[in-house]
Structure to design on (444 residues):
């Protein structure tokens, strides 16, 4: 049989092998940059049933630190995936993004989103380890700052006695701001189209527009349900769907904008314009207007529903519904103001103003649509030096203008095309005036 020393030696070797077997995953976790990819996994592992926003920031810090370790080890794809996990697995699914957008500012939410995109761009462009560390550290500071604001604390270690009250106020303000901000864009488009049709004497054509808007609301709920069912909500797929919808809206809005400006000639031949408007509407333009209303409502509606889902799972449901209700009431007043105030505006300024509004909305939708595609990992964000000076504020956020090369170049191209089309329209209007003058001369 085996000697005692031999048995002891093999016993020690076996024990060492067992210890090493269990130690290897720990080494991998510490040195290889492993992390929990979602907040659900993290909260289940750490027992976070009623987390603060700083708890979420702590969890995201672990993901970001892992991303740094992974990139330091030379795995750029792994670091890219880790940053993606911080965004889709934590920032979006916890409601951090929506609450920051509503309680702090929509531009702040975009600023953080673009910083995520910047971190991913470093990995795709082969940036240095120091550059990646710097950009990720900047992202961590932004997340922590927002967490402190949302928690109502002065620093990450100070819970503050007003934390619960601040969370309730944050829920109300966030939900009110979200429905008002997202709904405002849709109401602006729908209200302008309805006012346009009434102003031009096409009251019967408003029905398809209302139907389009209602279909937009219905399909918003259906699409949100499908995204959840297919596990696509808060994912790159959702961003791509929103981006494509926005770009389709750009095409339709731009067409409608040019159609409207063609009806904006002087008061002297307004009767001629009205007849042309009626004719155009009967020939199918009413469908385009209804489709525009549908796209505007659908794009914003589905996003709002997905925004509200994590908030409804929180501790301040009453404040969520209160913010939603107050926001809806405000939107009704916005619509009524557009609807009735427009009737007092002279024909030419109104038509021109409506056309310009549609063009501005197409510029905004173009910028936000491309940004959504960047967030959906379709493009890698490019921030040239000449765009870095663009600030982050609420006005530029509404206009869809960001310090991003892809969005700015696309918007500049659309602007140039618009100028060319406008000049061509001026020449066309001259012909129309001459045609009207000839008709008047013949009638005499």
């Amino acid at each position: 049989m085996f000697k005692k020393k031999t048995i002891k030696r093999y016993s020690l070797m076996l024990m060492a092998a067992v210890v090493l077997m269990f130690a290897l995953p720990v080494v991998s976790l510490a040195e290889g940059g492993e992390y929990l990819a979602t907040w659900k996994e993290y909260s289940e592992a750490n027992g976070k049933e009623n987390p603060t926003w700083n708890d979420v920031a702590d969890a995201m810090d672990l993901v970001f630190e892992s991303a740094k370790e992974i990139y330091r080890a030379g795995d750029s794809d792994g670091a890219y995936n880790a940053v993606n996990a911080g965004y889709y697995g934590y920032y979006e699914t916890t409601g951090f993004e929506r609450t920051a957008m509503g309680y702090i500012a929509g531009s702040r939410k975009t600023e953080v989103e673009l910083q995520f995109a910047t971190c991913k761009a470093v990995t795709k462009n082969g940036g240095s380890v120091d550059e990646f560390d710097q950009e990720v550290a900047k992202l961590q500071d932004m997340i922590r700052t927002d967490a402190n604001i949302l928690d109502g604390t002065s620093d990450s270690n100070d819970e503050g006695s007003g934390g619960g009250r601040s969370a309730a106020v944050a829920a109300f303000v966030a939900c009110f701001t979200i429905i008002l901000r997202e709904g405002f864009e849709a109401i602006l488009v729908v209200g302008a189209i309805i006012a346009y049709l009434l102003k031009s004497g096409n009251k019967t054509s408003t029905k398809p527009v209302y139907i389009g808007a209602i279909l937009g609301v219905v399909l918003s709920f259906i699409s949100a349900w499908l995204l959840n069912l297919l596990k696509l909500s808060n994912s790159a797929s959702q961003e791509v769907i929103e981006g494509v919808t926005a770009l389709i809206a750009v095409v339709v809005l731009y067409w409608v904008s040019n159609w409207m400006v063609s009806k904006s000639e002087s008061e002297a031949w307004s009767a001629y314009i009205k007849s042309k408007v009626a004719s155009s509407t009967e020939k199918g333009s009413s469908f385009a207007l209804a489709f525009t209303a549908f796209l505007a409502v659908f794009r914003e509606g589905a996003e709002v529903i997905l925004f509200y889902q994590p908030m409804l799972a929180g501790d301040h449901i009453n404040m969520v519904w209160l913010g939603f209700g107050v926001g809806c009431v405000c939107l009704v007043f916005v619509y009524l103001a557009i609807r009735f105030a427009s009737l007092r505006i002279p024909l030419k300024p109104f038509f021109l103003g409506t056309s310009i509004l549609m063009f501005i909305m197409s510029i905004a939708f173009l910028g936000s649509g491309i940004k959504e595609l960047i967030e959906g990992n379709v493009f890698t964000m490019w921030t040239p030096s000449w765009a870095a000076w663009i600030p982050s504020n609420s006005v530029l956020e509404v206009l869809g203008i960001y310090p991003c090369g892809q969005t700015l170049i696309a918007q500049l191209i659309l602007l140039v095309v618009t100028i060319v089309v406008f000049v061509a329209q001026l020449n066309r209007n001259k012909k129309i005036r001459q045609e009207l003058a000839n008709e008047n001369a013949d009638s005499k």
Notes: DSSP finds 15 helices and no strands in the chain. Confidence is low (pLDDT under 50) at residues 1-32, 155-165.
